[in-house]
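Supplementary notes for students who missed Thursday's class. We covered one full example, reproduced here. Read the sequence, then the structure, then the short commentary at the end.
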Amino acid sequence: MMNLKEKADTFSWVGPVVDKLKRELDLFREEEIRLPAEPGGWWHQYVCPRHHTELIFNAAEQDTFVFTCPQGCKLEGEPYRGAWLVYRHQAIARYALQAAAVFAADGEDFYSGLAQKILVGYAEQFPLYPVHPDAQPWMLSGRAFHQALTEAIWSTTLIRAYLLLVDHGVTFTEEEELKLQVFFTMLEESMEQYRHILIHEKKNAENNYTAWLNASLACVYAAKGTRAKLGSLLEGEGGFYHHLSIGVKPDGFEFEGSTYYHIFVLRAYLIAAEMAGRFGVDLYDAKGDQGQSIRGMFQLLVELSGDNGELPAVHDGPYARIPFAREIVEVLEIGCTAYKDPTYQPILANAYRYLYGKEERSGLEAVLYGEGERKELHSTSTARVSILLPDSGFAVLRHPGNPLSVLADFGEHGGSHGHYDKLHITIMHRLGEVAPELGMVPYGSILRKEWYAETASHNTVTIGGCSQAAHTGSCREFRQESDDTYLWIRSDGAYEGAVLDRHLLLTDGWLLDWFHVEQTTDRKQDQEVDLWLHPTGDLLLPVESRRIRKDSPAVLGQEAGYGSVEVLSVLQNESDCALSARWSSRYDQVGHAAEYEVSACTLLAPGSILHEIRTPGVAEDPSSLIRGIMLRHRGPSVDFITVYRAGHESAALKLVSQAGEEVRIQIETNGQRVVYCLNPKKGLIQEKSLNTEE
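Structure (token representation):
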């Protein structure tokens, strides 16, 4: 990468961004920066127990003992104080890197002095921390934090600041350098010990911890100039090449199937690559045993992202969080510089839009890693094809004439970060989400396990009021043609004696979602089968069929175990009929706002019931409840059939025939009438297509 002074002289946008970073640091001209003497706890506990939202953190606040929820709750004591200290230590490490970057860009001594003060301060303080006595038993215990993982991440920020200063001619006194080298040696010993425990004792080399322990040690070796030890981080069990081979699937997705942890591991790889480059070792084109690569991990993000650059929150992970957005910016800026691929730009632009309200470079990550004359970025992407990720178990259906797309999850559970969500679908519009996965709250919230990881919070099926078992589904067929894309996915391990088949067909006019459930054991046949849909936006249900108001919204929770679900109303039909619904969303783009609507038409089987429900919302703010739909049917088999269209006019959907195992339906919209047949052995078959005038 370019020298920061050279970058500031070359690109016109760098100077104004550096000036902004200066102003953020200038508060320490008046008030000396203070490093907390206490070690940090576990950041996931920085969450309101009532509203389940992350508590507010103000980086300019040097100390506090009262912690505020965005809804106004005031909390004191542990575990909130320990979690706040994590944020504070991380913020100070970031200040060190920011001050080093500002100095490197314009050479003002105040900023190098600030960075030096932080680095030496932590070098003096770190030996005073014991191995954390309050860490939870499952953690690898750190010193400065509960988790060794947090310590590894924090150390990379500090050492990057140290190296940036040294690269730009800053020297420390002999006493300061001695303290720093003791600090680095202690980190080295700790990280090597943690690494041995994780890889050789716990036999868990694929863990995302491993990538960060490797990254931390790579930074330590770079700071100490010990090239000889770098080989141990590259080769052998748990080394860079081995972790790339076992921690990333051949299709490029991190093995837990989470976009959040994919970015998390990719960032660790890029830090390791940066440090290896200091010793003349190029990891940017490294390959795993089955062709896995850093470039392939970037391509995976491009393939999963929406047309507006938004990344879906599959499995554990937040949608929107400032530290996560900064990580996306860092990773994508490095990727753009290393691989010169313009398809990365929409994701980068979306992250900048979230952070700063504009699709343009700003902030520390831009100065450190961004290159190019253009400050502005553009989120508009070219039309992309459907994709199948056979190793990870995901598929994305796209069609150039349809603003709707759909992501389907049929693969492995995802380990400790997986959800009980097989055959879940995320429906997206070109302008934003329609029916997403709801994301994940901080792990200290009880809703992590009670709602967000459970099946009912996903757009898929539950049976008997229970979540699915942890299992792996399968792809029966994936077919992409000029007129449509068809996906047939199956789960036969979610529930004993039940087979779930989901058929998805995307054309230029609609998305057909046909979910067939077959219960094959007698004792299962009277259990209730529920299909869930959690749309964002304003849901509009028509007054159709017979509408029954529930006397108590708690009844469903008591009967079926869905404690987080409130029933608002019920629509019940006695014969085959189609019910329509629609919802509208508003998407704020740079410079203007755009609105979009999506309509749905559902074919209800006799005896099926449509519940209008209210549940915790997207994990960024669970207290912002969302209205959704749950379709319920009791019986040995059921077909849930829904057609989605962009716009306010829904398609017409009706049952044509049901003979033996075959079911035929007709879809009519835009002057076209199409008949489809579902055969359990052959899948979904289009039988005829006519103009309505014929």
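Commentary. Residues 543-561 have pLDDT under 50 and may be disordered. Residues 174-201 form the longest helix (28 residues). If anything here is unclear, bring it to office hours.
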